[in-house]
Prior knowledge:
Elements: H1 3-16, H2 37-40, H3 63-68, E1 73-78, E2 82-83, E3 93-104, E4 115-134, E5 141-162, E6 164-178, E7 192-207, H4 208-216, E8 227-241, E9 244-245, E10 254-255, E11 259-274, E12 277-293, E13 295-305, E14 308-317, H5 326-331, E15 339-349, E16 353-362, E17 365-376, H6 377-386, H7 395-403, E18 404-414, E19 425-433
Antiparallel strand pairs: 1-3, 1-19, 2-3, 3-4, 4-5, 5-6, 6-7, 7-8, 8-11, 9-10, 11-12, 12-15, 13-14, 15-16, 16-17, 17-18, 18-19
Amino acid sequence: MDTKLGLTISVVMLLTSTVSYGQFETAVPFLMIPTSVQGNGMGGVAASLTTDDAISNLSNPAQLGIFGLTNSLSLSTYSPKTDWLPSFTSGLSLDVAALSAGLKLNRYLNLPAPISVCIGFSQVYFDLGIFNRTLANSPTVVSRWHAYEKADLLSLGVGIDYVVKLGLGYSYKWIDSELAPFGTEQEVGLGVAKVPAYDFGAILQVPVVDIVSHFKRAPVTFSDKVSPLFNLTFGYAERNVGGGVSYGIQTQSDPLPRQGVLGWNFEVGLMSEVNHRPWKLFSFTWAREAEDVLVSVRTIKTVLTPGDTAYTNQFAYKSWLGSIRPIDNLVLGRTNGEIALQKGWQIQIAECLYFRGGSNTDVGGLLYQTHGESIKLNGFLKLVASLGIWNPHRGWGAYLINHVDLQYSTCAYTSTNNSLLNGTKFSSINIVLK
């Protein structure tokens, strides 16, 4: 087999794992690559960050429930695909596309509170490149194959808006790992694996100003056109839940990279209204998430004969929070040797421009820093309308400002510790119908 494939897989496994197990690794580590461009601009925070970008559902399917409360459709795709580890010059690339469609049940049923049901489909495609198969003792190429890994997800979310907003979500995923043809030099650990898994999660958003207004029975405002904004959001997701992954040898398997993620954020700012719809004039968001790879490993020592000892690893999955400690990790910002921390911030101006930054720290220290930006068409339309330059009250103008948004987001990783992640860039286009 071409040694380039073995080197490529080794580097990918090393750099997509946030927790080191010594000589033990999880299978299909591409599933741990954070995919949300907006979240990646904030250090990788995505499971607790509410957004109308369909790709965010990969971080937490509960995003679907929150999305459906105010939106009908979202179509997101990388543009262009991401060159993964560009300094490695390996030809690795990551491509992601997602679709979300939501339905507000209150349009058809008399319900005591707004309730949404939303479905989504998404795909993550990790291209490992094209490799040559050669003879055992000859450089002669006898065949070529295209190595890749991908995951297809079908998701369902439910949201309810009653004093607070609650989103619940579930994703079923089909994982396909095509590393090499069966029987290639009988190499253990390479081949083809197809396994199922699932994700689930919850998001709770607390609109503090709205709650105060509700109990005061009067809106909290600064003037007739401006009011304060203060939201607290909490999110939990468990991803890649399933059994082991075997490449052709059923008695040998590695664990899925099961992840538990817990996070929170706060958003403060100013609100107004355009064309009878809410408009964020300005806001600042700060967020932090803690992530644990929910896999524990036990090394078993077996004495075969005097002087001959075998060591084997057995894995087991942890449950729920694993080693995450909410106060210690999320409030005080400390690690405990087993979890990774993502921290980020966002400044948004008039729903037009978004600026982001953050950092990702694993158990060994700072892994990389991030920065990112977004530009959104709907915010510019609201800004123009608020200045009196354009009257969108009728016809196509009213439809655009009330129902359509076109978004472009980009972000990049930077690292000062010679990490191969340095220079990795993400960008995406998102179309939203409200």
